[in-house]
């Protein structure tokens, strides 16, 4: 069976992927948010499994995670909420979280349940690629899950080539050397970096994330890449406007 | 082959490694590629040794505690790290790391702190070297450790409150790591214990190993032998313990005892006894034992001593525990406070409350009359006077 991520990446357009924290604003919002995002023609969704100590995240995602945990979100709860999601949703679903949560659930058990639900890929920013390859790659592959690696402006070309050897669907290209949600905008260096990596002719597509918040940043980041991932800006929108105006937020990006 | 040293992948047995976001990869790689080589240079060694001697006040005495020895019918030595400049062993590490930061041309220093001891030790070496210093400290700790906040400010450091999570040491560490992500080029992160991603546990152990090197020389002149029968130290993250243990790890004749804080008791839900309450997992980029719920969310520890109030232990200690090389004993708040009082009254030494935990183990052990015990007297009690005062109603 073709992986849904690959199918999405083969579309002849720039892709929008949205990150949200499961269990926020309310514990039971997960399904409604996913449905609303698909209805707004979002191409991919990253479902954030909230973690107590999210090292790569800035204040917005930290706070949504803290709130989600307070609301009662857990790995088990998320899997239960997503149980029949594939009856209605067709776009790729990716779980993004921190490795300790997966380790405690059991890596294999986590992958088995994710596959049963119809999850297509996993982003674990703190699972280093060498340890993934040594200990977990076979498990991921057995359960048809893509492991999506990150690169940053500090990642050397040599290392990018190594990372690109994985069949990962896409590479998550972090726009600037910052935690999520920083609003520094994109300077010349950032734009050069997008172009430099875009021209490397990697086998995997590139999706840019961190710091994408509106139409202008979206266009700049997707010019040399396949598309963008929006997280903090979406969470902020959810906090301010609630889940009913998701369509408006997506419309304004395009 | 050494059994208790870090391997080429950054692991101690099953523990350690660098489980960090790619955003930190180049920072850590730079450190990993360079720290061993820099520390070995003559330039580093001569500066390090000179500062340890003239500025920190090393070697610290190995003091034979006659009264305590008499009471417990065994031979008790105290390694007097409490006599170091700034009042604890923490400065051995910060002196070494500031020289390393200089060698790597870093201009901005960040650190985390709980009780403020490591923050003060970092602010001190930054003042000495004229480098910018930012210390992250949990909002809750800022309130309960006001004197150390004032010391850091006098030393020219900026103290930034960590407002996330539980607003204590673990969150201050998260904030320091995030700062490092946001400033990858010119910043060096001086971590305060043998925790965090590789190469930090090994780096800090190496810098603290001066403690056990001195013990060997001092014991030789006092007892005619280099090795004690027991080495004993409190374990928060485990840096004073790693410093005291390091030279004796491979010599299985030396018994190793790590002392953890069990707070109000291991079953009280207000405890920091990581080896008992923890499970294997990942905290601050290291695979180790940590206190967490079944979903892997990190839980809040508790101890009366802010320096032992950490939900993990360094990967070296997790390895020593799992292999049985070290024995871990946990001590409650009350036991530690009484032991601190006893050391004060019998030897005239008021220890830090962290340190006091180590001196509370006698009722759990059977030492022989001619056993030689070396305790790490890791810090002095000045910073804890308010807590002692409240506890004993002075
Ligand atoms: C005097 C003293 N001892 C021990 C500790 C605990 O740290 P570690 O376990 O790294 O030695 C601290 C930490 O603040 C301290 O101040």
Architecture overview:
The complex is a heterodimer of chains A (254) and B (394). Chain A has helices at 4-9, 30-39, 59-71, 75-81, 99-105, 107-117, 129-142, 157-164, 188-198, 215-222, 232-241, 246-253, and strands spanning 15-21, 44-48, 93-96, 121-123, 146-147, 150-151, 170-174, 205-209, 227-230. With 254 residues, chain A is an alpha/beta fold. Chain B folds into 2 domains: 11-51 and 90-204, Rossmann fold, CATH 3.40.50; 58-87 and 209-392, Rossmann fold. A 6-stranded mixed β-sheet of chain B has the order 3-4-14-9-10-13. In chain B, strands 7-6-5-8 form a 4-stranded parallel β-sheet, sandwiched between helices. A two-stranded antiparallel ribbon of chain B has the order 1-2. In chain B, helix 2 (42-56) packs antiparallel against helix 4, helix 4 packs parallel to helix 5 and helix 9 (200-208) packs across helix 11 (239-245). Chain B is globular, with a radius of gyration of 19 Å. Chain A binds chain B through residues 51-53, 55-56, 58-59, 62, 66, 69, 74-76, 98-105, 125-128, 131, 149-152, 154-156, 159, 174, 177-179, 182, and chain B through 17-23, 25-27, 164-165, 170-171, 174, 177-178, 181-182, 184, 279-285, 292, 294-298. Residues 88, 114-115, 117-118, 193, 234-241, 307-308, 352, 354-355, 378-379 of chain B line the site of pyridoxal-5'-phosphate.
């Amino acid at each position: 069976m073709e992986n849904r991520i690959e199918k999405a990446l083969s579309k002849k357009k720039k892709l929008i992927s949205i990150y949200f924290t499961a269990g926020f604003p309310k514990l039971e919002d997960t399904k409604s948010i996913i449905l609303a995002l698909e209805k707004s023609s979002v191409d991919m969704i990253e479902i954030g499994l909230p973690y107590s100590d999210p090292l790569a995240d800035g204040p917005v995602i930290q706070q949504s995670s803290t709130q989600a945990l307070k609301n009662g979100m857990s790995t088990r709860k998320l899997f239960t909420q997503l149980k029949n999601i594939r009856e209605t949703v067709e776009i790729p679903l990716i779980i993004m979280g921190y490795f300790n949560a997966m380790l405690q659930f059991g890596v294999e058990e986590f992958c088995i349940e994710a596959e049963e639900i119809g999850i297509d890929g996993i982003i674990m920013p703190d699972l280093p690629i060498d340890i993934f390859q040594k200990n977990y790659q076979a498990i991921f592959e057995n359960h048809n899950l893509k492991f999506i690696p990150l690169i940053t402006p500090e990642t050397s070309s040599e290392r990018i080539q190594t990372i690109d050897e994985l069949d990962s669907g896409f590479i998550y290209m972090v726009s600037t050397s910052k935690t999520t949600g920083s609003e520094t905008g994109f300077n010349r260096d950032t734009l050069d970096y997008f172009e430099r990596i875009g021209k490397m002719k990697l086998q995997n597509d590139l999706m840019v994330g961190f710091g994408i918040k509106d139409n202008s940043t979206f266009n700049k980041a997707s010019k040399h890449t396949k598309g963008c991932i929006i997280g903090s800006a979406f969470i902020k929108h959810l906090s301010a406007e609630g889940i009913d105006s998701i369509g408006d937020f997506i419309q304004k990006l395009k | 082959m050494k059994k208790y040293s870090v391997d080429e992948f950054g692991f101690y047995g099953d523990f350690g490694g660098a489980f960090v976001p790619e955003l930190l990869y180049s920072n850590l790689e730079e450190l990993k590629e360079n720290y061993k080589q820099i520390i070995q240079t003559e330039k580093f060694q001569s500066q390090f040794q000179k500062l340890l001697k003239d500025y920190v006040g090393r070697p610290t005495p190995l003091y034979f505690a006659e009264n305590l020895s008499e009471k417990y019918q065994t031979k008790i030595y105290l390694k007097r790290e409490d006599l170091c400049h700034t009042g604890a062993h923490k400065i051995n590490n910060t002196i070494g790391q500031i020289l390393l930061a200089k060698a790597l041309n870093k201009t901005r220093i960040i650190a985390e702190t709980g009780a403020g001891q490591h923050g003060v030790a970092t602010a001190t070496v930054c003042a000495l070297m004229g480098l910018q210093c930012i210390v992250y400290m949990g909002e809750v700790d800022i309130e309960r450790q006001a004197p150390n906040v004032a010391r850091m400010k006098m030393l020219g450091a900026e103290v930034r409150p960590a407002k996330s999570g539980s607003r204590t040491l673990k969150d201050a560490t998260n904030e320091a790591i995030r700062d490092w992500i946001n400033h990858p080029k010119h910043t060096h992160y001086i971590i305060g214990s043998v925790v965090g991603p590789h190469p930090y546990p090994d780096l800090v152990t190496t810098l603290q190993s001066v403690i056990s090197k001195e013990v060997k020389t001092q014991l030789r002149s006092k007892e005619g032998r280099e090795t004690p029968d027991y080495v004993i130290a409190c374990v928060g993250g485990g840096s004073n313990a790693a410093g005291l243990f390091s030279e004796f790890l491979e010599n299985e004749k030396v018994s190793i005892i790590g002392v953890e804080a069990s707070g109000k008791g291991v079953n009280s839900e207000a405890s920091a006894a990581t080896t008992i309450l923890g499970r294997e997992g990942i905290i601050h980029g290291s695979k180790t034992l940590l206190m967490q719920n079944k979903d892997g969310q990190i839980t809040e520890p508790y101890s009366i001593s802010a320096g032992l109030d950490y939900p993990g232990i360094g990967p070296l200690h997790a390895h020593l525990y799992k292999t049985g090389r070290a024995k871990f004993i946990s001590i409650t708040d009350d036991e530690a406070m009484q032991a601190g009082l006893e050391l004060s009254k019998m030897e005239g030494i008021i220890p830090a409350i962290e340190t006091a935990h180590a001196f509370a183990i006698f009722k759990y052990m059977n030492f022989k009359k001619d056993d030689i015990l070396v305790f790490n007297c890791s810090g002095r009690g000045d910073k804890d006077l308010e807590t002692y005062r409240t506890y004993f109603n002075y």
